[in-house]
Amino acid sequence: MKESFDVKKTSSNGTIGMLAFDEVKIKEGLVWEANSNKLVGFVDLDDTPIDLSTVTSKSPDAHVPCHENVATHVMQFMFKSLFAPFSFPVAYFLTKGFTGLQINRMFWSGVSLLHDFGFHTMLSVCDGASANRTFIRMNCGETGHMCQNPFSSGPLFFMSDPPHLMKKLRNNLYSSGHERYNTRCLSYNGKFMIWKHICSVYDRDRKRPLALTRLTKQHVYLDNWAKMRVNLSVHTLSSAVQQEMHEHENAVTMSTQLGLQEGEIQT
C-alpha cells in the first residue's frame, strides 16, 4: 500500500482517510493452495488458531464430516483517502459471523498498522449490522458519533454506510402497510407511511404519455436482487416521487412525503 501510494505521487494530505469494512457471502468449500501447500477456506479472524480436531470431527452420521470451521463470508477492510484519489484494500478475514468485540480488535489493529506506515484514519464506515452497531457503541456510547484516535491524537468519526441507509429506508417502507402480508406499519407524526403510496405514484405515472418519475415495475415489485440495488432506492425516495404525491394525493400521502424528506421514521 505504501509503495502504491508513493508511486502515484499522491499529495501528503492523501494519507488522511477512512477505513470502511463490509462482508460478502462466499461459497463454502476448501481449496488446496499449491504455493503454500495448505487448505484455504477455514474461519480466520486472526485471533485464535484453527482447531483441526473440530474440523475433522464426525457428525452423528459417521460417514459425513462436520466442517464447523469452514468460512461462509469474507470481511474486507478498505482504506480510502478523503482528500485524494487513492484507495487500497488493506485486509480481509474469513468468517462465519463475528462479534462487536472481534470487529473492534481488528479495526484498531488496522488503524495502528496504518498509522505506522504514515496513514491516518479519521473516519469509520460500515453498515447497520448488529455487530457493527455494537462496535460503534463500544467506542462512542449510545448516542455518540466520534472518539479520539489514540495513534494520531485526532478525532475519529463513525458513520453508517449511506447506500445501506437508503436501501434500509426503502425496504422498511416496502414492508409497511395494512395488508396481511405486510410485516410492519411505519408512521410519521402519528400518520401512516405505507408502500401503497409509492404504488399509486407508479400506477398514475405509467398512464401518462411522459412519465414524471423514474419508477418502473422493478422499483415497485421488488425481488431479492432489486432490494440490493441502490439506484432503485434512490429513484423511489426521490424528490420527483414526493412532488407527484404532493400534486395528486397530497393529504393522504403527507406523512410519507415528510418522512422521506426528513428520514425520521418511527416503527
Number of extended strands: 10
Percent range of helical residues: 25-40%
Largest sheet: 6 strands, mixed
User: What overall form do the CA principal axes indicate?
Assistant: elongated
Strand content is 15-25%
Strand numbers in spatial order across the main sheet: 5-4-1-6-8-7
As residue ranges, the low-confidence spans are 50-67
Tally of domains:
2
Roughly how many Å is the radius of gyration? 23 Å
Number of helical stretches of at least 4 residues:
11
Secondary structural class: alpha+beta
Return the average pLDDT rounded to an integer. 85
Give structural notes.
The chain has 2 domains: 2-160, no CATH class; 164-262, no CATH class. The protein is an alpha+beta fold. It contains 11 helices and 10 strands. The protein is 37% helix and 21% strand. Strands 5-4-1-6-8-7 form a 6-stranded mixed beta sheet. The protein has a two-stranded antiparallel ribbon with strand order 2-3. The protein has a two-stranded antiparallel ribbon with strand order 9-10. The chain is elongated. The protein starts with a helix and ends in a 5-residue tail after the last helix.
